[in-house]
Amino acid sequence: MAKVPEVTISSNVEKQLMPVIGMGTCSYPPADHATVKSAVLEAIKVGYRHFDTAFAYGSEKPLGEAIVEALQTGLIKSRDELFITTKLWCSFAHPDQIVPACKMSLQNLQLEYVDMYLIHHPIRLTEVIRKTPVEVEIIRPIDLKGVWEGMEECIKLGLTKGIGVSNFSCEKLQEVLCVATIPPAVNQVELNPVWQQKRLVEFCKAKGIHITAYSPLGANNTKWGDNRVLDSDVLREIANARGKSTAQVALRWVYEQGVSLVTKSFSKERMQQNLDIFGWSLSEEELEKISQLPQRKGVTLASILGPHDLVLQLDAEV
Ligand SMILES: NC(=O)C1=CN([C@@H]2O[C@H](COP(=O)(O)OP(=O)(O)OC[C@H]3O[C@@H](n4cnc5c(N)ncnc54)[C@H](OP(=O)(O)O)[C@@H]3O)[C@@H](O)[C@H]2O)C=CC1
Ligand SMILES: O=C[C@H](O)[C@@H](O)[C@@H](O)[C@H](O)C(=O)O
Asked: Judging by beta carbons within 10 Å of its beta carbon (0-12, 13-18, 19+), is residue 309 exposed, middle or buried?
């Protein structure tokens, strides 16, 4: 079984070890409960120990059930062997609702704590939504100071070991850093060869915030992604020359940026392939070719919530 390297995350209260590759659980079209549960069990079997979920994905419950079963069947000996990340949905991004929302996620997951709790997006919705896009009336700016205090409270109550953010620009991170007693440990953002995020990577490095890349394969075959990564001629040529798949070249490039990554596959063969990116590295020449790829953000909040002014403003920040 593959052993995935770990990265030390040290900007929160305790030092944490996070496996550099995590399994995503957001699928499109949304997978049913049984499919998510069996994919998680398969992922544990092939060596994944880091799982990424969110209230919004509806995958907390099947992930929790898979963990219970993995413990019962001895696939893992203790819950501590896993690194579990979940996220505060925008509908609960209000100071009074952070602790209850975290407790609700823990209940879904049947866990006493998560390893990382992230603010999913820097925006608030005043209602719990059942469908997207949403009406403009329910969109509000987020009270970052109040919300971050709630996140810090989750650590103090032992509900989570670490706290962080997702989809935050340099500007939004700076706002959090100005009010934080406990700085964010992680910023989970879209990052891949066609959206390299050089400025954000530099900024986070300087501030000691660890980046986790999502959609490292460009989220092909989903509503929010496209095939620009997996259909890239440059990546395919490198892959052919190396005897690797295009996906492995993309994931290896992401890993070489000094970040961790969460990628989703519910196929056993691709799960294994996506873990098999160690023991070789890209050459200077290959890195140079990849750095020249045309850049465009793939995942936008407007594609989820609708093209409302505040949402478009956030999408324009990088
Ligand atoms: N914080 C945030 O706002 C966001 C977080 N995320 C998180 O990041 C995770 C991963 O990102 P995601 O957007 O899913 O995109 P990915 O870049 O991981 O791409 C997933 C897609 O690629 C396919 N795939 C996986 N491996 C391979 C391979 N080796 N070769 C060819 N195709 C492959 C999968 O299909 P198949 O299953 O059939 O293999 C799926 O269609 C999510 O599941 C979620 O947990 C994602 C978006 C936003
Ligand atoms: O309803 C909203 C969705 O769950 C949205 O938040 C996700 O699709 C997001 O892009 C993610 O994957 O994190």
From this structure: exposed
Output the pTM of the full model: 0.98
| Tokens describing residue 277 | 């990116």
Q: Tokens in use for 48? A: 């994944």
Amino acid at 53: T
For the CA of 166, the closest atom of ligand 2 is: 13
- ipTM metric: 0.96
Residues 285, 289, 291: CA angle, nearest 5 degrees: 115
Using most ligand atoms within 8 A of CB, pick from 36, 224, 303 the residue to mutate for ligand 2. Answer: 224
* Beta carbon of 278 within 6 Å of any ligand 2 atom: no
Residue nearest (by alpha carbon) to ligand 1 atom 11 = 215
- CA 180 from chain centre, in angstroms, equals 21
50 is an annotated ligand-binding site residue = no
Burial class of residue 46, CB neighbours in 10 A (0-12, 13-18, 19+): middle
pLDDT in tens, 133-191: 999 999 999 999 999 999 999 999 999 999 999 999 999 999 999 999 999 999 999 99
